[in-house]
Design brief:
alpha+beta; single chain
């Protein structure tokens, strides 16, 4: 992440935390030992605080240091209604509904609720993800090929797939199959 973007994010988080505590910039400045103008430039992302100032700011705001660098808890925790999920088609008879998840500590975690119709499966090309994946089959039976290895998956089975490996799947059962796929990327 670009340092100026990080500085603005950190400053906005400091402002958000300060306001939640019901403190003014002047209140915080006096306790930290800097001017209210310095607090203002930090909160606007114009300047970066020294380590000492940042530690003092965290102490005055009664918050751990890491809270300046992650989204607020309200933004990290949330409800996403089923009608708000994005639908992706992943081959013939395979639908994946994205389950939005937070970006925390610059890592990216994306989960999908996957529904595979009877006899549905991946395209001939399959799927090749640049990140590792974890799959969990909630119901049904699915044949999965990872690279050159094939696996018959049944309800409650899970599979770990390393990055940059081709994945193919086929639901060979007479009923739909449902699963959860989590892609873990940077």
């Amino acid at each position: 992440m670009d340092i100026s973007v990080q500085r603005k994010f950190m400053g906005a988080r400091a402002r958000e935390i300060r306001r939640k505590r019901g403190l003014t910039q002047l209140d915080v400045a006096r306790q930290v030992g800097v001017t209210d103008g310095q607090i203002s430039t930090i909160e606007r992302g114009v300047s970066s605080p020294s380590i000492e100032t940042l530690c003092s700011l965290a102490k005055v705001l009664e918050t751990p240091l890491y809270e300046f660098f992650v989204e607020s808890e309200e933004k990290r925790i949330g409800v996403v209604r089923g009608t708000q999920r994005k639908l992706k088609k992943l081959g013939t008879g395979t639908q994946a509904y994205e389950i939005p998840s937070p970006r925390v500590h610059r890592s990216n975690l994306v989960a999908y609720h996957v529904i595979i119709d009877s006899q549905g499966g991946s395209s001939e090309k399959g799927l090749n993800t640049p990140a590792p994946c974890l799959g969990f089959l909630m119901s049904g039976k699915v044949d999965v090929t990872v690279g050159v290895n094939s696996y018959s998956m049944k309800e409650n089975d899970s599979i770990w797939v390393p990055p940059h490996v081709s994945i193919h799947w086929k639901n060979t059962a007479k009923s739909k199959a449902e699963g959860l796929v989590v892609v873990i990327g940077d």
